[in-house]
Design a protein that fits this description.
Largest sheet: 2 strands, antiparallel
CATH topology: Ferritin
Number of domains: 1
CATH class: Mainly Alpha
Number of helices: 9
CATH superfamily: Ferritin, core subunit, four-helix bundle
Distance between the termini: 41 Å
Strand order of the largest sheet: 1-2
Number of strands: 2
Structural class: mainly alpha
Shape: globular
């Protein structure tokens, strides 16, 4: 789990006005976004046509992390704040702890997908405080994980909104973005109960509940989806087990031969200036920066702009696919990884 520093929890608990929560919701936006480059790096490392089940799982989680970021932006707007997305400081340094995270063993990097990365990083990010342990039938031995959770952070945010906010929240409803995602998952945050319901969606999609691996939409929470990759089997209902589930469904195969060997945490400055790899990395960073700019506009008064971001998301995907197929100059056996660096946009 991501272990949130105590000072952030204390600051949320000591909030006396809604405006005191603005910085913490901005941090939540940064946190939800910070997982996306890590997961996308793994997704972009999968060779075309390979590891389809693994790619589908990672893609599904990326989409929901985008949903969580959107929910956090809507809540901040509903309280009267304003998201700040298109600045270099919005992106964490990779490798390193996630925003608000304690500098512990969980260092999140931009790496090719592997069983070790899934186990240590992906499951480490998403692990709930008390993960449900389901048996793995006829599979490899497992390792212990020991991370913390962001669930408590969101719980205190929810409690403070419930305590401090009026029934109708003070933000401008016109800033609410409620498109692209299902209406029962992304909806306008107008009233206090809307914010509380939305926070529950974020937590349950990431961690599940204390009694089941499913979220409110009856889909596996992120932690258990990634566990399917690590254990090599789908988590399915199993009446023979005390908790009702086991990793005994269809195989989920991660074939290393179907993964590009990305140089971890590639930076533009690592590449020879003017080389094909440098040019492709520059184009990727430009596409990513355009997307962040468009999202900033979307969540700062122009929610209809979300339709324009869809093409930009596709550009990021295309640029990433082109980039990761290229050999890394001077590093035999490695390909170029996506850097996810914010850069000033070219005219």
């Amino acid at each position: 789990m991501v272990k949130i520093q105590k000072k952030y929890i204390d600051a949320v608990r000591n909030a006396s006005t809604l405006s005191d929560l603005f910085i913490h919701l901005q941090n939540a936006i940064k946190l939800e976004h910070a997982t996306i480059p890590a997961y996308l790096s793994g997704l972009m490392s999968i060779r075309p046509g390979a590891n389809a089940a693994v790619a589908e799982i990672i893609h599904s989680v990326v989409i929901e992390e985008m949903l969580h970021m959107s929910i956090a932006c809507n809540i901040l707007n509903a309280l009267g704040g304003a998201p700040d997305i298109n600045v270099p400081g919005f992106i964490p340094g990779y490798p390193g702890p996630l925003p608000m995270g304690i500098d512990s063993d969980l260092k999140v990097g931009l790496e090719a997908v592997s069983l070790a990365v899934v186990n240590k990083t992906y499951m480490g990010i998403e692990e709930p405080e008390h993960p449900l342990e389901f048996p793995v039938k006829s599979l490899r031995a497992t390792e212990e994980l020991s991370f913390a959770t962001i669930g408590l952070f969101y719980q205190f945010i929810k409690e403070q909104i419930d305590r401090l906010a009026p029934h109708r929240l003070p933000g401008d409803p016109a800033k609410q973005m409620a498109e692209y995602f299902p209406a029962d998952q992304l909806f306008p945050i107008i009233y206090k109960q809307d914010a509380i319901k939305a926070i529950d969606i974020i937590v349950e999609q990431g961690e599940g509940t204390t009694t089941a691996p499913l979220d409110q939409q009856h889909e596996l929470a992120h932690y258990y989806r990634f566990a399917e990759i690590y254990y090599g089997k789908r988590l399915v209902a199993d009446p023979s087990e005390p908790l009702g589930y086991s990793y005994s469904g269809d195989a989920v195969v991660l074939d290393p031969a179907g993964v590009y060997p990305l140089w971890p945490n590639t930076k533009l400055a690592d590449l020879p200036a003017g080389s094909e790899a440098w040019q492709a990395a520059s184009e990727f960073n430009q596409a990513y920066s355009r997307l962040l700019n468009a999202l900033h506009v979307t969540f700062n008064g122009k929610p209809d702009n979300i339709s324009d971001t869809l093409g930009m998301m596709y550009d990021v995907k295309l640029c990433g696919s082109k980039l990761t197929a290229l050999p890394f100059p001077g590093k035999s056996g490695y390909n170029v990884g996506p850097g996810f660096e914010y850069t000033p946009l070219l005219p």
